[in-house]
Amino acid sequence: MERRLNTTRPVARVGTIEDIVAIESRPYDELVTARNIYDLFRATAHHAGDAKALTVLRSEDPTDIAVTLTHHEMLSEITRAANMFHQLGLAPSQGVAAFLAPTLADLPSLLWGAQVAGAASSINYLLSRQAIFDLLTAEGAMLLVVPARQIDEMCWSKALGALEAVPSLRHVIVIGGDTEGLSGYMRLDDALAGCGGDGLGFEPTADRDDICALFHTGGTTGRPKLVRLTHGNHIHAAFGFAQVFGYDQGDVVLNGFPFFHVGGTMTVGLSVIAAGGHVIVPSPYGMRLAPVVERYWDIVAHYKATVVGGVPTSIGAVTNSWKPGADVSSVRMAVTGGAVLPKAVGSRFSAATGITLYETYGMTETAAAIAFNPGHGTPISGSVGFRAPFSETRILRLHSATPEICDPNESGLVQVRGPQVFPGYLDPAHNVGTLDPDGWLTTGDVGYLTPDERLFLTGREKDLIVRSGHNIDPAAIEDVANQFAGVEISAAVGMPDQYAGEVPALFVVATAGADLDMVQLRQHLDSHVHEPPARPKSILRIDALPVTAVGKLFKPTLRDMAISEKVRLEAVRICGPEVQVQVDVRLDERKHTVVDVTVSGASARQLTELDAALKPLPQSYAIRRAPKDE
Prior knowledge:
- The protein folds into 3 domains: 414 residues, Rossmann fold; 81 residues, GMP Synthetase, Chain A, domain 3 (2-Layer Sandwich); 74 residues, 2-Layer Sandwich (Alpha-Beta Plaits), CATH 3.30.70.
- It is 30% helix and 24% strand.
- It has 19 helices and 29 strands.
């Protein structure tokens, strides 16, 4: 007997933790019947088949449409893609199809089709060719999907040589153009020929625990870190976002994230479509293109978008492109996540647009779903909201030998458990210290829960640098720096930044007696760090790295030094090179970082400008004039 079709549409208006608890009073399998993500697309096509599901734009012009699909049409395209991938060798728990492409018209259906047939891996096209080949090799990719040269020269060029370099790779599938006669390459249209969209030609998995996606996060060349996500992870994340944000068939949601990011595939992707909504992709390259940012509000008005948003840097960018009088009457909420939202950025956005901004919190390892400010509630500034339905969040005391639960309002290490939490990395060695046998995921973030269970984040224990929502593993920088002649050791940390939240800063210790050429070191890093966002903004030479009593590197001290360097750079920029700055970084009683700044040689006007420049940063800054200047 066929399972009852059921979308993830909201079952209640969620505004408080009590509303989430009320949802949990019903059996999970009664609320969510899907056993695989194909069930979600089938259910939505059944309930909202003629409604629009996906629109992908070619450019910033809202009328320049590459494709518009209804939910019926999307199901058909996903079915065709799944049948194609199955014919090419993918099967549940067998085979990976990798994607190296911007969000072209065909990409979402192909990606979800690969997840139905087997597993999909969407790779960041900004990575170097060698890093891409390392990822393909680590995940055992069987197929690689790329755009034709005339569509995207960069992606095409980076894929050249993959068949020879990656032992598991069988075919390269080319979207929208010619194969140029290359052996092992096939045109997408040819691969799809004969693949029907009326029904699957194979039996999809019925096991929610089967892997359907791989995402890369952190890692360096030769040791990529690959996150495995299951059908169940996707289903629960889609369900959670729909319940807490209130996604339904009436929603039109702008998705400016890339599809190699869980924000693009889940937060404003599958979650919206599974609830019957309409996803608008504003360009193949999302919000990376300046013209898209400039015309963002035109796109909002044209499609009568109900949900807008992006990472904090995107929020800042679209605030700058706001035009008074823009029609945002259709918008019910703006969503941000992926990095700490500077208060000044959020305040400027809401003041300019009149739209309420809702923060959310997630990780690749949780399919983006940990905590949400409910769409029908009142967001609290600085809070990332309540836990996802049917999940748990707990706060552990830092540096405790055994797990000790923190009291309400006491900061500690954030852990999460639930159906959205991944089963582990592809390499089990990466699980150590991250995923325990009881299913608790250690996020690496530090925060506290209020008595009404709102989560506030106050910092990070982990060393990842989060730049505009993108995770950067410090080792990706340190490994390259340490190979440079004259560098004994190095360490990278995040430096606060008004636009990106934080950017990499590198501290280097020179080999004894070495004449370390800092200019050549900079050139070396620019040439060999694979991701441009990971290239350090500041490189500072120090005598020795700070260590603990047992000799372990102590990065909190370096992070404080990076804050001090940021203050110095801003002071010199505003006040001139003669300015003198004393910086003291400390934690207040709530474990929030407070920075006391004493400035000598600056005018009152310059101090006011410096205060304004530092206010958008995540820390709290207190600026005073040196006594001798008073």
